[in-house]
Design brief:
By secondary structure, the protein is an alpha+beta fold. The chain has a single domain, classed as Lipocalin. It is built from 2 helices and 8 strands. Strands 1, 2, 3, 4, 5, 6, 7 and 8 form an 8-stranded antiparallel sheet that branches.
């Protein structure tokens, strides 16, 4: 199995364990663009309870209000094969994410770099 798909499968497996089997449906990049990256405000809650709001514009720019310091930041976003990547504020490199269907109209966004798969 190619490394990229191993990582995607690992994150989906983690999501099943954390959020339940019905929540592990991956949302593709085009659905993200159509339903979430349309300029409307997206409210987020992080794993430690931190809240912020994002606005992803169709031109590939984004704005965040809130976050760790409660400040605003701007950045860019792009779609990739499995989800999206973004660079925010003074970040030196982009972070890439997968989106998994949550309960109701919510989605769960997971950073791809957070999972490892080891085999022998």
């Amino acid at each position: 199995m190619p490394l990229r798909w191993t990582l995607v499968a690992s994150l989906l497996f983690t999501a099943v364990g954390v959020y339940g089997a019905s929540a592990a449906e991956l949302i593709g990049p085009q659905a993200l663009k159509r339903d979430w990256f349309d300029g409307r405000t997206v409210s987020t809650v992080g794993p430690r309870g931190g809240k912020s709001e994002f606005s992803f514009k169709a031109d590939g720019t984004l704005t965040r209000v809130g976050g760790r310091q409660g400040s605003a930041a701007t950045g860019t976003w792009r779609l990739d094969e499995d989800g999206f990547c973004m660079t925010l504020g003074d970040a030196k490199r982009e972070s890439c994410y997968l989106a998994i269907r949550g309960e109701g109209d919510a989605i769960r966004v997971m950073r791809r770099a957070a999972a490892f798969t080891w085999t022998r």
